[in-house]
Structures are given as C-alpha cells and as structure tokens.
Amino acid sequence: MALDRFEVRISIQKVLLGLVLVIVPLSIVGLYLTSQSDRLLSSSMGTHLKTLAQMYSADISHLVNDRIAAVKLISADPGIVEAVTAANRAYQKQDEAAVSAKLDKEDKAWNSPESAPAVRALLSSKVSETLRHYHEMEQQMLRITITDERGVPVAAIAKPSRYTLTSVDAWQSAYAGGKGAVSVSNILYDESSKSYFVDVGVPVTESGTGQFAGVALAAVNITPLLANFQQDTLGNGVKAFLVNDDGTVVSGPKTDVFARVRSEEYSAIGDALGSVEGRQHSYVTADLRNGRTIIGFADTGLSKTYKNLNWTVLVSQEERQAIAPVRVLGQFATLMVILALFMITLLAVYYALHRKQQFADIETVTSANSPLSPPHAV
User: Fold this and answer.
1) pTM, whole model, 2 decimals?
2) Does the pLDDT at position 370 exceed 60?
3) Which helix (H) or strand (E) holds 214?
4) Which range is least confidently modeled, 138-142, 193-197, 327-331?
5) Does residue 135 contact residue 211 with C-beta atoms inside 8 Å?
C-alpha cells in the first residue's frame, strides 16, 4: 500500500536549524528566569532572616521585662516596704557619727564568725521568708536582697557578700543619687550555680510620699536566654548572634560571653544601622570571609531604658546555602546555553562545509560542460 512506503525525509540542516531556533531562545529565557529567581530567593531569605531576628529580639525583650516586673512586684510588697521604712526610722534616733561607726564595725566583721547571730536573724526574719516565697515562684532569681536607704540588708534569701551594699555598682545605679531608678547591670557569672546573670535593682519607695527608702536587688539568671544563640546552627547554616553596640558578641555559636570577640556580621550592617531606610529594611547582603552572606538584624529596644542592654540580634546565612534550591536550575540553564552555542557552532561548521562542497560540485559540472574541454576519446 501507498501508506507502507510513506517516508519523512528531513535534512540535517533543517534539524539543526530547528534545534537552534528552539534551544537558543529557551536557554536564554531560562537563564534569565533563573537569575531572577536567585535574586528573588535571596531577597525572600533576607526577609526570613529578618523575621527570625525580630522573633529572637522580642523574646529577649519579653524575658528581661518580665524579670524586671517580678523585682518591681517584690519592691512594692507592703510587708517589705514596711520593713524598710522601719529600718530607716531607727537611724533617726541615732547620731550620724555613731551610725557610721556602727556600719563600719559591722562591715568589717561581716565575713567572720562574729557575724553569725546577725546573719541568722536576717535570714530567719518574716520579710526574708516572704522573699523565699517569691523565689519559689521565680526560680530564675538566684539571689534576692532588700536594703534600707544606707545599703544595709533588711531581708535576703542568702547571706549578702557584705554588710553594706553601697559599694556595689548595681545598688548605686538603683540609688541614683537618692532619686531611685530601675537598673540592670552588665552580664556577670555566678561560679556556685555556673550561671550567667544580671543584677536588677529596683528602688523601694515609702508609701504615700513615694520617696526613696531602699533597694530591691535580684541576681537574675539569663543563661537560658544566652543558650538560644550558642547552637552551631539553627538549620541549613543559619546562625544567630546577640551583639553589643560596640560590635562584640554577647552570645553566639562557640563564643564565650567574656571573650569580647568582634562580630564580622555587625561590622557589615553598620551602614544599615545608621540610616532609617536600612533599619526598616533590616537585612543586608555582604561579602564576609566565608563568602557572600545574608544578614537579618533587629534591635531589642532595651537600651532605651537600660543602658547596659544595648543588644542587637543578628541572624545570618551564606548566600550559596540560601539559594541552593535554585542553584541546580541555574547550572542546568547555563548548560543549555552552552549546548545552544555548541549547536550554533556545529551549524556554522556544517554550512561552511556544505557551502564549500556546493562550490566544488558547481566547478566540476562547469568544467565538464565547457566547449573548450578536449573531446572524449572514441
């Protein structure tokens, strides 16, 4: 039958031309779309890292403010206020020189066996019992001490380091020249509990008058807060850091709090922190030692109230890891472009050879049909 002999003949020239016309445009479009995908994915990851930084920042702010609120609650307890006020009234009946001499004497003997009765009386008082109840409700308070206006402990859950606490920076910050102010110290370390902590000081004020009467001091454990930043990675190479405004790492992967390590990421976001637009954007892409890196950041907002807590959260990821999902597509698009170029080259070579062959055939035919050619032998 006729259909049995049906054949489709297409020259290699047309096949190559068709492939070029299809592959080249598609490859160029694919490469363009892939590059656009890289850019969009990088931007998307920047927004994601910024969101993570904001979440960490909000958690820190909430935790710190929650602990400070707990100390404020203690300082406002009616029983504690009354005990502090009563301690201050006792000074009114004594000569100033006699009071100073007594405080000096007690301070010198505080860490000797001679002070045992005074320490026992302090820790067994009704007000100290109240503090222990607060401690049971808030286990992250390692120590709680209440002092009068002269820094002498009125109540405590453990023996204070000295009889008068006026030489302690946290007490002086809360005293604030007699005006009273809420204060938070720099990060400290408690050897006995192996914990990082900050001293939170809140003024105790007299009922009715609101005048400064004493200080409520609490050593607040922040080890769980810092531990959130000490993981090697949050997944897929994402790392989180808590950094001071001087660029030193407060807490980060394999970084000790007191090592004072400089943050390369913080230096990279310096310009963004200095502009309103940069702070609103809240992420940058920068070239670091390990390669191009996307860095999201967020201010904890604590430094507005507590000068020692000038912390910024950084969350970073190397760009090559962030855009890995489209990197294979980019490599495929590049391969297709190379293939298209190869096809164009092959087609050009084919045309050149075919053209040369055509010219050779024409010359042969022309030479054979020329009237000047010698006659054929018979």
Assistant:
1) 0.74
2) no
3) strand 212-221
4) 327-331
5) no
Per-residue pLDDT reduced to its tens digit, 175-202: 999 999 999 999 999 888 889 999 999 9
CATH 3.30.930.10 is the classification of domain 77-222: no
Q: Exposure of 151 by Cβ count < 10 A (0-12 exposed, 13-18 middle, 19+ buried)?
A: buried
Phi, psi of 2 (to 5 degrees): -65, -35
The structure tokens listed for 144 are 């709680």
Kind plus residue range of the DSSP H or E element containing 23: helix 12-75
**What are the residue ranges of CATH 3.30.450.20 in the chain?**
77-222, 228-322
Token reading at 165: 């606490």
Instruction: State both tokens at 228.
Output: 């959130």
Q: Tell me the C-alpha distance between 291 and 361, whole Å.
A: 60
Q: How far is CA 280 from CA 50, 322, 332, in A?
A: 10, 22, 36
For 347-358, the DSSP string reads HHHHHHHHHHHH
Q: Within its chain, how far is the Cα of 108 from the centroid?
A: 46
**Of the options 3.30.450.20, 3.30.70.20, 3.40.250.10, 3.90.1300.10, the CATH number for the domain spanning 228-322:** 3.30.450.20
